[in-house]
Amino acid sequence: MTGGGWRSETGDPDGSPEVNERLSQPSLPPNERLSQPSLPFSRPSLPSLPQTTKLSDSDAAYPITDPMPPGRKKRFRSLLIGGASVTFAIVVASGVLVASRQSDEPVAELAGNLFAAGLAGSADGRQLELNGVAAMGATVAVAGGEDADSGYRTEFFLSKDAGRTFARAQVRTPKGEPPVVGEIPRRLAAGTGGWVALGDRVGGSVVWTSPDGAAWTRQPDATASLAFGPRDRVADVAWTGNGFTAVGQTSAKGDFTDASPVVWLSRDGRSWERRAGWRLHPPTGGTLALTDVASVKNAIVVRGESSIKPYDITWRSTDAGNTWQAFAVPGKSRKPELTFAATATTMLAVRQEGSRATTYTSPDGVRWTTAAKIEMPGFRSLLRLTATSQTAVAAIETDSGVRLLRSTDGRSWQPAGTTADGVEVRDATAVADNTVVVGADAAHSGTGALLAVRDKAGKDVPTGIPDTTGSGKVVDALGTADGRVVAVGGANGDAAVWTSADGETWRRVQDKEKALAGQGRQRLIGVTPGFAGWLAVGSSGRTPSRPLVVTSADGESWRRADGVAAFQPGGTDPLIARGVAAGPDGYVIVGEDGFGAGTWWSADLKTWERGTPAGEDNLVGTPTTRRWMNSVTSGLFGFVAAGGVTDPNAYGGVFIRRPTVWISPDGRKWSLIRLPIPAGVNEGWLSHIASHDDVLVTAGTAVTGNGTGTAAFGYASVDGGRSWQSISLPVVAGEQSSVTAVAVTPRGFVVAGTVGRPGDVVIWTSADGRSWQPEQPRGSAMSGPGEQRLTAFTAVDGELVGVGSTATGQGDEPTVWRRPLSSDETGTP
């Protein structure tokens, strides 16, 4: 949510959760970034392969020969990565774990102390969001996370004094390990049987449970999350007397134009039973999504939102969800406008009616009574209705901000305070005499999160969330030229550039021109040297999203270059830069332009023009036929970009992401080639590409199984991208894998990825782009608890240098990995 193949409204290169919400497709794993070093090498011949894919200007599928046929091999001298075991000597420096070099073995460092962060920026390198809140007695739990540059990190917070103070709750797997990055808790519920949170991850849902709100366990997918499919959306969860009930919708197509209802049932929150609309049928010709669930006594009530009349549809079950009976709440819906909640004794239904709302109450979900009218100046809408066993809370949007109301019976409502105008209320609860509200507050909060506590009189109760953890730094890409290594990424909310002469000691450049700072989060994700100087691209944090483009003559002094017309979006569609390359014909940036692929070309880093399609829809996309480019490489063939498209015609109308490359002889006009989805997977996209001479390697991540697994896959071309053959990137059978980098080196090609869940680093190497060997480095920053990844490589002073990150639920650090090259490896192949 990421790196995603989908466009992002915010321009966040991680692939934001909002994209997943809108498109109901799993986003790319976080931090899958361009990693294309500039390395000097000669151009040896490689085996010729049959041209099985012919380039044309049409947007069509092409055949591919698989596997690559054997042929005469003129190899690079030997594999870049040796098969020797890794030896580490562990020392502690400034509180950071560092692996020091022993002999000629590879070494890895947790490098938070190597990359200076500089002064605190606008968002401290991350953004905190609070999505759900629940209470039992005087205990309050809040669920959300830190949207850090290195990936989304799950967070739970606990208060034992009715919201006056909060502490960070412990989050672990059943094995006691820190949780992985990229999992977002969204819905929270509490009852006498404990606490449960439901959320999102790539390819599916996540379940967390807690006995007391203080210690949370991320439940294994095999026992919990598999009941929630990759095309499901969970809208609400509640304790319903004998267990938990969750409701939502599912879509066979993936775009929710065919939404149908889903109910999930669980006795303990750990294992769930899925019941997909088996007794809850949508109106003929319409769609139906369940949005609310509540319980009173032995009755469970769910509410559905239909696309046609009747807009609000309700059901009731008195046998723990086994059978359901439809019922009606008084009044008529002119649009979806009904909301449910329940205390221990009373079911409440609130119906919006223009500039006011009406409350109905029921002791059993069958007999309903008109209880009260909610009227106030500037009434706009009911944002949220929740209830504990004792008290209901309503959050009302008005012209002057959000007003909070409380009631114990639904008949009498008392003011409970206000929040500032412009905040986004996502959840609320009552605890003792206090009311706790969570959500987003970009205007008034330095973290971007909303946490408001109001007392019985509606006055503010000072409170706060503990400080975030982790380094706030991320290193995404590397480039090398003229004895200088340049690393780009982000630190403390601003874009950052570091330079090094040896790949071991790094210095952050001084941003004298203020090119790397700005409103919102700034981050660079790609960099390349060229004949006119250095070019780096990323995200600017502006809305609608526009690329951050900076240039430098020497890698030290950087200037903004994105003020020209070519980088200005048309309307509200975002422009996103994801990859960059330089060649004899100039510089190319690739990414996204609204629903389509975006490209930019410059001959001199001074003037820029937009790329054009060679065929009618080679670049232009629609909501159902999206195009996006993630990475680009250059050579004597011109430029080749890698990414994906959505195909609405595959598999009976389900939106499938397909791996795609684009070819341009000059960086200006682009032709599209769709590559076939590998056998045994549902869909896939390409995230990285690199080239040597006319040999190109591109790789990405495929979705497997029922949409919850991932697998690394790739293709190679020996004729400048005109024809392609699939390649095998093997891992241990049954393990999930993904791709995080592709690079060319003095010895051949290297593909980096992750294997397992959470991911450990895996490296595939090939001397010819044809045969690939896997290796899993061991030790600090390469394997173990948390998510480890390498995202870029370059070679300097006889060493291969890689950068990446190590991230857990407790923090994150940049990673530097180095492998000395032997004497014959440093010469020209």
From TrEMBL:
A Pfam family it matches: DUF6242_C
TM helices/strands, residue ranges: 78-99
InterPro entries, per database record: DUF6242_C, Sialidase_sf, WD40/YVTN_repeat-like_dom_sf
SUPFAM superfamilies: Sialidases (SSF50939)
UniProt region (Disordered), positions on chain: 1-69, 802-829
Entry keywords, A to Z: Membrane, Transmembrane, Transmembrane helix
Low complexity: compositionally biased ranges: 33-51
Domain (DUF6242) ranges: 346-562
Name of the protein in its database record: DUF6242 domain-containing protein
UniProt source species: Nonomuraea helvata
